[in-house]
Amino acid sequence: MIIIQILFAVLFALNLLLLWAAVLSGRLLFYRFVAYPLMLIVPLITVFFDQPRFELDYFWWKVAGIIAILLGIIITAWAKKELKSGGVRWHDASPKALVTSGPYQYVRHPIYLGLIFILVGWWWIWVAVYAFYFGMFILALIWIQGYLEEKLVLEKKFGSKYREYRQQTGMYWIK
Question: Is it the case that residue 93 has pLDDT exceeding 70?
Fold first, then answer.
């Protein structure tokens, strides 16, 4: 069943490529409303296919997974609220303002960080071997997504103001 995990990883990567093609071309921007939910759904369903399970103290991994998921939801909700109060929609291809308050004063991509916490927590709960290993590939793609967003959208739009913000703030971790 490893082939199914590979297909999910390829689907995730293809989804990101289509998202960037839509954003950079300025066409098919409606695809963002498909792409962003797929960024969450595709990794979550990988655990439901037949695969070996890690032999861990399952109770504590489940507890840690639930805590990570709740933390991810809180970070994501806080980041979306802060964007909204700054007059920015989280799914805008080209934001009108640079938000540097709330969770954005600590990390540059708190929504992606929240997604990472949710995914890792989910994988901990299910302790699915293939989903976890291919999940590392998916996490690398999320990092690339954040990096490309910075280079191709934010730095281009906000210039030196964004470069200064980047110097002071970690991408996914507090500086």
Answer: no
Phi-psi region of 95 (alpha: psi -120 to 50; beta: other; left: phi over 0): beta
Give one word for 31, left, alpha or beta, with left for phi > 0 and alpha for psi -120 to 50. alpha
> Which H or E run contains 111?
helix 110-126
pLDDT in tens, 124-141: 898 888 888 888 989 999
To which H or E segment does residue 143 belong?
Answer: helix 129-149
The C-alpha atoms of residue 11 and residue 71 are separated, in whole angstroms, by: 27
Closest CA to 124 of 53, 74, 175, 174: 53
pTM: 0.88
Domains of the chain, first to last:
2-168 (1.20.120)
Q: How far apart are alpha carbons 58 and 125 in whole angstroms? A: 8
